[in-house]
């Protein structure tokens, strides 16, 4: 049950496991000239030799880089001073003018639409999402036209031999910068908090955009310019460029993170956590850079992918729930946090399913990035003999099964939780709730679904990793059969509980009496027992098999009867009308009337020596008869006192018409023939 309720973490766990596996494999496989060793100590020695070899190569590259950079600069200067160089520069400028002209022509028509979007008053999250998507589409269309115009114009020129590489390198750098800026500006929205999808401090949004663009530039230089330097016979210069870009990128991200945390710390008045979570970001940045130094780019890329996927998964809930957010967009936006808004949406079905699919998609993209980093084509993953690729392939299957299981679990759990939330909290010591049956069965249905999904998930994961589950199923059947024979009482309790619940014998909050003379209010129902709270306080846990016949005192309605002893001389009809009038006044009461299903009535029940017994009766909702009876006693006592009718003393009184008169205001009763004869004899 608990495992299924956290199935969404399986996506992240699968991705983290694959990255950790590949990371260790990459560190251990770092190239170095030392002889192979065996065992755990040998693996550590192997890793240390690889790190020393890597650092030695970087040191050599730094020593030889100045001379190679000077040679590259002289080559480029000489090439640009030639006729081919001038022609290439002229063609490049013309191409850039064509691309910029095409985009300028587009914005002469699209700028008004962009201004309308920026000035539109937003009243809902759905509208904000649509406007942000439309704004992104406008900016992306301009960028696409710019790229298409440049790509098309390149074919109209005959470029000098050997200069195409420089042209394409510069254009790729420009394209990378613009794409990075477009994505960062859309997600972080500096100066436009109402369009912001990420839960980030608005004071740091602009700084983060600049950092993303700078890191994109450094990565593009490392990935695009580096191979060009290697082609120009300057491998140490290329390696030095990698070192500089990695160091500058790490420092830029680290500085932005520290400034962002400092800005939050100055304005955050909450109590600091016991564990300094803020230190994790700088530590991870330093770890990625350190791993790049000692193990190479592939290992650092794996760790960086782990780091990035973790951050995305951490903020993914607020991003996905942005569309369903119920923010007040008419007020100031800078004080709002998307994480707080997303917290209230976890009980809704559509956002929960969308979040599960988004988490799975992020993990799949992360694993795809890992495969690209390792250099395994997607078409060869299934047939690859690489153990890392096979492990990743199995984890993809696990995440897929976890996604299906989690979506099914969400589809069952969310409607149940939402329905229970609508029914409200259950007061087991209050009046029986009309929805008590739902509040009894829905938690048990949720528990049964959770156990079922957990078992199916475990069996499916084992089958995905190649474990034959047929013996497990057969063994489970035999074990269940043996358990059934050896635990007859347990089976009897389970079967009895199923029939008790199916026949709606009792519900949570109802007062019942069992055949074993145990009574109390139903507080909790499990698969095997029912918890009964006695009116004196003790809590009884009764197995279903021991309940026997059940008397439910809280179902539908309850009739309460009580007696009133009055003197024998009172007039029966007058007493009946008096009690009826009391019952009518009780039904007119706004509180008591809602609890009474039938009015209070009275009739002569029997006559004892010197006493008339009147039986009073009323019908009420179950559980309310006690307070109604108390109020009826109080009002009847008051009415009898006003009518001058005392309660019977329980002794015989002989009344003589000629010598004795009844009490003042009492109802006079004519003596019977027997009474008159007795008086004559006396």
Describe the fold and architecture.
By secondary structure, this protein is α+β, with helices and mostly antiparallel strands. Residues 1-11, 14-40, 331-336, 342-346, 657-661 and 663-682 have low confidence and may be disordered. It starts with a helix and ends with a helix. It has helices at 2-5, 8-28, 39-80, 83-119, 125-154, 164-188, 205-231, 235-267, 280-295, 297-320, 338-343, 349-374, 387-423, 436-464, 470-486, 488-502, 572-588, 625-643, 673-681; strands at residues 511-514, 519-525, 529-533, 539-543, 550-552, 558-567, 596-608, 611-620. It is built from 19 helices and eight strands. Among the domains are: 18-94 and 156-264 and 279-323, no CATH class; 556-682, Alpha-Beta Plaits. A hairpin with a 5-residue loop joins strand 3 (529-533) and strand 4 (539-543). The strands form two sheets. A five-stranded antiparallel beta sheet has the order 4-3-2-1-5, with no helix packed on it. Helix 2 packs parallel to helix 12 and helix 3 (39-80) packs across helix 8.
């Amino acid at each position: 049950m608990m495992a299924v309720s956290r199935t969404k973490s399986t996506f992240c766990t699968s991705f983290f496991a694959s990255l950790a596996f590949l990371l260790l494999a990459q560190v251990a496989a770092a190239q170095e000239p030392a002889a192979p060793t065996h065992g755990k100590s040998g693996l550590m020695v192997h890793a240390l030799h690889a790190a020393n070899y890597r650092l030695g190569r970087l040191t050599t590259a730094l020593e030889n880089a100045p001379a190679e950079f000077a040679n590259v600069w002289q080559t480029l200067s000489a090439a640009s001073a030639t006729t081919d160089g001038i022609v290439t520069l002229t063609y490049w400028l013309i191409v850039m003018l064509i691309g910029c002209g095409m985009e300028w022509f587009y914005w002469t028509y699209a700028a008004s639409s962009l201004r309308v979007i920026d000035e539109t008053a937003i009243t809902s999250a759905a509208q904000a999402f649509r406007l942000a998507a439309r704004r992104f589409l406008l900016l992306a269309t301009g960028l696409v036209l710019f790229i298409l115009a440049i790509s098309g114009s390149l074919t109209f020129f005959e470029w000098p031999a050997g200069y195409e590489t420089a042209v394409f390198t510069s254009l790729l750098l420009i394209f990378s910068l613009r794409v990075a800026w477009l994505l960062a500006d859309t997600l972080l929205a500096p100066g436009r908090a109402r369009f912001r999808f990420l839960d980030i401090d608005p004071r740091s949004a602009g700084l983060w955009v600049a950092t993303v663009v700078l890191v994109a530039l450094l990565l593009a230089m490392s990935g695009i310019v580096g191979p060009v330097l290697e082609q120009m016979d300057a491998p140490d210069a290329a390696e030095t460029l990698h070192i500089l870009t990695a160091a500058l990128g790490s420092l830029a991200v680290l500085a932005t993170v520290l400034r962002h945390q400092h800005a939050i710390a100055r304005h955050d008045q909450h109590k600091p956590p016991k564990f300094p979570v803020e230190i994790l970001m700088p530590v991870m940045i330093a770890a990625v850079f350190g791993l790049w130094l000692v193990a190479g780019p592939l290992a650092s890329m794996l760790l960086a992918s782990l780091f990035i996927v973790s951050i995305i998964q951490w903020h993914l809930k607020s991003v996905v729930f942005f569309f369903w957010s119920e923010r007040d967009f008419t007020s100031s936006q800078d004080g709002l946090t998307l994480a707080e808004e997303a917290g209230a949406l976890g009980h809704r079905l559509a956002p929960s399913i969308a979040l599960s699919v988004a988490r799975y998609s992020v993990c799949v993209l992360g694993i795809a990035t890992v495969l690209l980093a390792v250099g395994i084509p997607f078409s060869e993953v299934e047939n690859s003999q690489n153990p890392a690729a096979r492990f990743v392939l199995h984890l993809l299957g696990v995440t897929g099964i976890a996604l299906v299981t989690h979506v099914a679990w969400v589809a069952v759990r969310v409607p149940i939780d939402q329905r229970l939330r609508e029914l409200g909290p259950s007061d087991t010591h209050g009046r029986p709730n009309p929805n008590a049956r739902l509040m009894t069965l829905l938690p048990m249905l949720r528990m049964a679904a959770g156990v079922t999904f957990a078992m199916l998930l475990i069996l499916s994961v084992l089958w995905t990793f190649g474990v034959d589950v047929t013996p497990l199923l057969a063994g489970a059947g035999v074990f269940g059969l043996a358990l059934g024979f050896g635990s007859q009482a347990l089976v009897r309790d389970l079967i009895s509980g199923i029939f008790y619940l199916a026949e709606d014998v009792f519900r949570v909050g109802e007062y019942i009496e069992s055949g074993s003379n145990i009574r109390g209010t139903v507080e909790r129902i499990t698969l095997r027992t029912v918890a009964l709270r006695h009116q004196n306080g003790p809590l009884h846990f009764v197995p279903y098999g021991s309940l026997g016949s059940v008397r439910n005192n809280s179902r539908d309605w309850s009739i309460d009867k009580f007696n009133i002893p009055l003197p024998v001389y009172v007039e029966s009809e007058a007493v009946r009308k008096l009690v009826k009038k009391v019952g009518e006044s009780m039904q007119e009461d706004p509180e008591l009337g809602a609890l009474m299903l039938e009015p209070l009535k009275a009739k002569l029940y029997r006559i004892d020596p010197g006493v008339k017994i009147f039986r009073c009766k009323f019908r009420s909702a179950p559980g309310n008869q006690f307070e109604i009876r108390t109020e009826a006693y109080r009002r009847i006592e008051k009415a009898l006192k006003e009518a001058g009718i005392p309660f019977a003393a329980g002794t015989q009184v002989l009344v003589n018409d000629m010598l004795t008169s009844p009490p003042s205001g009492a109802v006079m009763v004519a003596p019977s023939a027997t009474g008159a004869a007795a008086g004559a004899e006396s």
